């Protein structure tokens, strides 16, 4: 983990790294979304609203132009330094020391354990550096690849948030809510590769 030029960079392994998002990432974000619309919009409600690179520029600016005490850490996921997706914290409640992790990954990079390793790194960062006590992940009930990630990492399924997200097709989907708390997190969890 390094913090060069005030940009957080987390090396996961020799091929995977997380880099704090910058405005220069907007082109990669847009072109990845634009080239994989059918695949990504099944579970990501923002895809239809990302019509030009300017939409991605506006998104990145909205994440960067936030007061530091309200800012959420958002990272590009890189494989051999190439952009392949996004991961970060959202809806952080600092008073109650809880946060949520959200992520998406390019279709061609699925099934390699990249997001599982990236989530694990962010969980460690949340507990060790941000003094968080609860991390949650929400996954659409039908999104099996996404929900396997918290399951592999020992998160607890708490229940179903009914009609929790409006998808691009105009339909609401139920969300499975998974959590990991400070009492779950420890040396054994950190060693666990599941």
Strand line-up of the largest beta sheet: 1-2-3-4-5-6-7-9-8
Derived from helix and strand composition plus strand pairing, the structural class reads: alpha+beta
List the uncertain runs.
none
Please give the domain count.
Answer: 1
CATH class: Alpha Beta
Order of helices and strands: EEEHHHEEEHEHEEH
**Percent in strands:** 25-35%
What profile does the largest beta sheet have? 9 strands, mixed
CATH fold description: Aminopeptidase
Rg result: 16 Å
In the CATH hierarchy, what is the superfamily?
Gcn5-related N-acetyltransferase (GNAT)
N- to C-terminal distance: 22 Å
Mean pLDDT comes to 91
Count of DSSP E strands? 9
The level of helicity is: 25-40%
Shape: globular
What does this structure look like?
With 194 residues, the chain is α+β, with helices and mostly antiparallel strands. The protein has one domain (2-191): Gcn5-related N-acetyltransferase (GNAT) (Aminopeptidase). It contains six helices and nine strands; from the N terminus they run E-E-E-H-H-H-E-E-E-H-E-H-E-E-H. It has helices at 26-35, 37-40, 53-64, 114-128, 144-152, 187-191; strands at 2-4, 7-11, 16-20, 74-79, 82-93, 98-105, 134-140, 156-166, 172-181. A nine-stranded mixed beta sheet has the order 1-2-3-4-5-6-7-9-8, with helices on both faces. It is globular and about 45 Å long. The mean pLDDT is 91.
Keywords summarizing the entry:
194 residues, Aminopeptidase, nine-stranded mixed beta sheet, globular
